[in-house]
Design a protein that fits this description.
The protein is α+β, with helices and mostly antiparallel strands. It is built from eight helices and 16 strands.
Length: about 475
């Protein structure tokens, strides 16, 4: 006999119920008993049910981020907790074990029954922005399958099995959006309408690998700060699936699947800044978010992964879109047959969908000149154009490179009020692991403060524009 714990069935509207234990007996009896247990309902459809295109409705009557009284302009930097370094870390036990084979310590390990709900404003707003991400992915994956024909996909090197994998990833989002909706309760954000920047299958795939990158990193940035450790556990099991999705889209995009040793986390406001431009409108009385929308940042010479020789990328080789913020997809239509790596049969140049490709000529390199253009604050953006970009920083002076475990700064050379350039830094996470690699993040700042992965959100008051995704590898 074994016990089946069904957490999903316990996550009812307000997510207050505890998991229920159902006893299932092996053999024939297990089939009949299991069949009598109904599957928990989903909050979302597996079909593509929303509309697409830019927002054309009336001006929003409610604008800006959700806010209450604000106690300070920023979170003060404090010294480490006095007990942070007192544990001897010598491989020995130092406190009585609360039970056999159970070392003392840990959070949520004292036998208290877990309740899978949010426990603070921080929890609610963090998981809400993650839910906005799950909703767009659910629609995006289905939309691409509906938009392009079988012949379109096959011309891009994607077979019926590949298309089914994309469909299955969309179905995964049904579970993710249901889970997070149940954790948040009755006022959880609902699915919206969206505006996408792709016109070819390759652009669709490239946009997916970029959107799933900031969706995944957005959760990594806050998950270990949640007050609700129970909700964090379920969210971890959801975002681990999204990490697999991002790698698969890189493979479909002809990129090396995982060129880094560590995946990076970004603040919630960074994730919301990257996501909001693709949301056209949301239902009436939609739950609003408290996170900041920073002014847009565009990498003018974004490495074009569709090129055989990415080091020959010129300016503006991405799909033109009102929200060009570094997550716009590559532009393959501007390339000749010889310039497009998908047509190459030479190892080290090929970029057709595959388990892996290792390029002879990298997409970027230390010492590369990277050109930027940024927007002024005050732009209406996001659902119903009801959010407004803002910054509390001064004039831009630095480019912040956020990748793996590193925050690295390079000097920004300003060439006009809204343009400038920098030199791609040569830095490593560990020996043999260049920090600037993969689909990573850059932002403009007015200071080069020292931060680490656990407190990276303290960079927000210094952000002038961005983030943007940099296709460095």
């Amino acid at each position: 006999m074994f016990t089946k714990i069904t957490v999903a069935s316990a996550l009812v509207a307000l997510a207050y119920a505890a998991p229920q234990a159902t006893t299932i007996i092996p053999g024939e009896a297990s089939t009949s008993v299991a069949a009598a247990v109904p599957a928990p309902p989903v909050r979302s459809s597996t079909q593509d049910v929303t509309s697409h295109g830019p927002y054309t409705g009336p001006a929003a009557t409610t604008t800006g981020a959700l806010s209450l009284s604000v106690l300070a302009a920023s979170i003060p930097a404090l010294p480490p907790n006095p007990t942070a370094t007192t544990y001897p870390s010598d491989g020995q036990l130092h406190n009585p074990e609360p039970a056999p084979y159970t070392p003392a310590g840990g959070l949520g390990t004292n036998g208290t029954e877990p309740i899978y709900n949010v426990k603070s404003d921080f929890d609610y707003e963090s998981i809400a922005v993650a839910l906005y991400q799950e909703w767009i992915e659910l629609d995006l994956f289905h939309n691409g399958l509906a938009k392009f024909s079988v012949a379109d996909f096959e011309a891009a090197g994607l077979t019926a099995e590949d298309r089914f994998l994309i469909e299955f990833m969309a179905d995964q989002e049904v579970g993710h959006s249901t889970l997070l909706s149940n954790i948040l309760g009755a006022q959880a954000p609902q699915q919206c309408t969206y505006n996408y920047p792709f016109e070819t299958v390759r652009e669709f795939i490239d946009f997916n690998q970029k959107l799933t990158r900031f969706g995944e990193s957005g959760v990594y940035g806050f998950i270990n700060h949640l007050d609700s450790r129970e909700a964090a556990q379920l969210l971890l099991q959801s975002i681990s699936t999204e990490a697999r999705q991002q790698m698969i889209f890189r493979q479909f995009d002809g990129l090396f699947p995982m060129p880094v040793w560590f995946e990076t986390g970004i603040p919630q406001s960074w994730a919301w800044t990257l996501l909001a431009p693709y949301i056209s409108s949301c239902p009436e009385n939609q739950t609003r978010l408290a996170w900041q929308n920073f002014p847009g940042l565009t990498i003018l010479n974004q490495p074009n992964a569709a090129r055989t020789l990415a080091n020959e990328t010129g300016l503006n080789e991405f799909v033109s879109f009102p929200a060009s913020n570094g997550s716009s997809p590559l532009n393959e239509t501007i390339l000749t047959l010889d310039e497009a790596c998908v047509n190459s049969t030479v190892p080290g140049e090929m970029c057709s969908p595959a388990i892996t490709h290792n390029r002879t000529v990298p997409l970027s390199y230390a010492g590369r000149v990277v050109y930027f253009e940024w927007e002024a604050p005050g732009k209406a953006i996001g659902p119903n154009n009801s959010y407004v970009t803002s910054t509390t920083a001064g004039a831009p002076q630095f480019v912040a490179w956020v990748s793996q475990l590193n925050l690295t700064y390079s000097a920004l050379e300003v060439t006009s009020p809204t343009t400038g350039f920098t030199i791609q830094p040569n830095t490593s996470t560990f020996a043999g692991d260049p920090a600037v690699n993969g689909t990573m993040f850059v932002a403009l700042t007015d200071a080069n403060i020292t931060l680490t992965p656990f407190n990276l959100s303290m960079i927000n008051p210094f952000v002038v524009a961005g983030p943007a995704l940099y296709q460095s590898g």
